[in-house]
């Protein structure tokens, strides 16, 4: 038995057919490779091209740019199936759900036609570089500098905690084009990683998501064409980030809810199979009550998430709503998976069990995409 689920309100027959494709790919290409990717601190590079070949990259990018021509609902289905497969390594949410949409929204037409088909095929892997060694959620305080020099910008600085950083071919970089202008001095530049002066640092050793390449990036007099500026002029970066962050936070909520549901399914199966004192662990009142609470938490989170996905598909999800769903679902998934792990007893603490990896993986959800404390600050401004 598993957690009872109903088709989400935003889904339809075509999306459910697509879900079968996504599920098959994730079970075949993601689930069996977890241990090797954890050891290597990154997925296989050919995973990206395999995904491109079957049409799983840039799902919500129009077909004229090589994408799937779908909607955010297609991205949601893929991320749900990725979470249910037990994978926390593949940075497809950043690649397709974030980077591709910065390019789609703000890049010059010529650049869109150059870059987006490469992201859709897997020839290019995308990353976005905002966080710096001394700057987390405070994006106005970044120090990476881009100075205009003729038809180029010269970029100097450092970024850290960059998902897909070790494999990225293209990076959207938040830079300061006017260091004295605060938020109005922030711009976004696209850096192709074969550009002289770009170099990668360490692939960082994290508490969780150990198969995901989270890296340091350095820019030493990197000369970037001025045409790689996102937007029609300098100084639009902060506004662009604020416009795109709601989708990023919704993506985090999608994986949180799917991860919660997957953990409950695993725990129900384990407690019905595992015995103690001559009977299944599931039959103990504490187990049943814990799972009843977890199932209720998941159902509430799912209902809120589905509402937010519907709003986003209509173009109505605002900053407050995105902050709320990110705050709520990531808090809940951490609590639910912790409770589920407890029901596994000592085995829950063994990394060979998916529940242990999930417990470590979800801890970052309350931090990235803006910490949950920042989410509360954002919500409070609208009260």
Automatic annotation (TrEMBL):
Belongs to the acyl-CoA dehydrogenase family. This is Acyl-CoA dehydrogenase. Keywords: FAD, Flavoprotein, Oxidoreductase. Transmembrane segments: none annotated. It comes from Amycolatopsis arida. The keyword Transcription does not apply. Residues 237-382 form the Acyl-CoA dehydrogenase/oxidase C-terminal domain. SUPFAM superfamilies: Acyl-CoA dehydrogenase C-terminal domain-like (SSF47203), Acyl-CoA dehydrogenase NM domain-like (SSF56645). Residues 13-123 form the Acyl-CoA dehydrogenase/oxidase N-terminal domain. InterPro entries: Acyl-CoA_DH_CS (IPR006089), Acyl-CoA_Oxase/DH_mid-dom (IPR006091), Acyl-CoA_Oxase/DH_mid-dom_sf (IPR046373), AcylCo_DH-like_C (IPR036250), AcylCo_DH/oxidase_C (IPR009075), AcylCoA_DH/ox_N (IPR013786), AcylCoA_DH/ox_N_sf (IPR037069), AcylCoA_DH/oxidase_NM_dom_sf (IPR009100). The keyword Cell membrane does not apply. Its cofactor is FAD. GO terms for molecular function: acyl-CoA dehydrogenase activity; flavin adenine dinucleotide binding. Residues 127-222 form the Acyl-CoA oxidase/dehydrogenase middle domain.
């Amino acid at each position: 038995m598993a957690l009872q689920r109903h088709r989400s309100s935003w889904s339809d027959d075509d999306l459910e057919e697509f879900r079968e494709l996504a599920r098959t790919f994730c079970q075949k290409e993601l689930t069996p490779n977890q241990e090797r990717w954890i050891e290597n601190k990154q997925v296989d590079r050919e995973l990206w091209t395999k995904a491109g070949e079957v049409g799983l990259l840039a799902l919500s990018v129009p077909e004229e740019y090589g994408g799937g021509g779908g909607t955010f609902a297609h991205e949601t289905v893929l991320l749900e199936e990725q979470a249910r497969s037990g994978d926390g390594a593949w940075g497809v949410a950043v690649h397709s759900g974030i980077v591709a949409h910065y390019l789609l929204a703000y890049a010059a037409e010529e650049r869109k036609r150059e870059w987006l088909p490469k992201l859709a095929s897997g020839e290019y892997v995308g990353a976005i570089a905002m966080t710096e060694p001394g700057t987390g959620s405070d994006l106005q305080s970044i120090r990476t500098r881009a100075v205009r020099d003729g038809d180029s910008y010269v970029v100097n600085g450092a970024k850290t905690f960059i998902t897909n950083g070790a494999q990225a071919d293209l990076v959207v970089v938040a830079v300061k084009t006017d260091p004295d202008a605060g938020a109005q001095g922030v711009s976004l530049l696209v850096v192709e990683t074969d550009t002289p002066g770009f170099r990668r640092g360490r692939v960082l050793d994290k508490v969780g998501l150990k198969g995901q390449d989270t890296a340091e990036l350095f820019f030493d007099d990197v000369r970037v064409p001025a045409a790689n500026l996102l937007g029609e002029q300098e100084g639009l970066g902060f506004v662009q980030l604020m416009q795109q962050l709601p989708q990023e936070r919704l993506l985090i909520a999608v994986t949180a809810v799917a991860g919660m549901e997957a953990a409950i399914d695993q725990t129900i199966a384990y407690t019905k199979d595992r015995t103690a004192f001559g009977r299944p662990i599931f039959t103990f009142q504490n187990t049943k009550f814990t799972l009843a609470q977890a199932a209720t938490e998941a159902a509430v989170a799912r209902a809120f998430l589905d509402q937010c996905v519907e709003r986003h598909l209509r173009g109505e999800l605002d900053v407050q709503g995105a902050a709320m769903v990110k705050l709520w679902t990531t808090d809940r998934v951490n609590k639910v998976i912790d409770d589920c792990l407890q029901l596994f007893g000592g085995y829950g603490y063994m990394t060979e069990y998916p529940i242990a990896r999930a417990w470590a993986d979800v801890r970052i959800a309350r931090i990235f995409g803006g910490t949950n404390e920042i989410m509360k600050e954002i919500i409070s401004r609208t009260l």
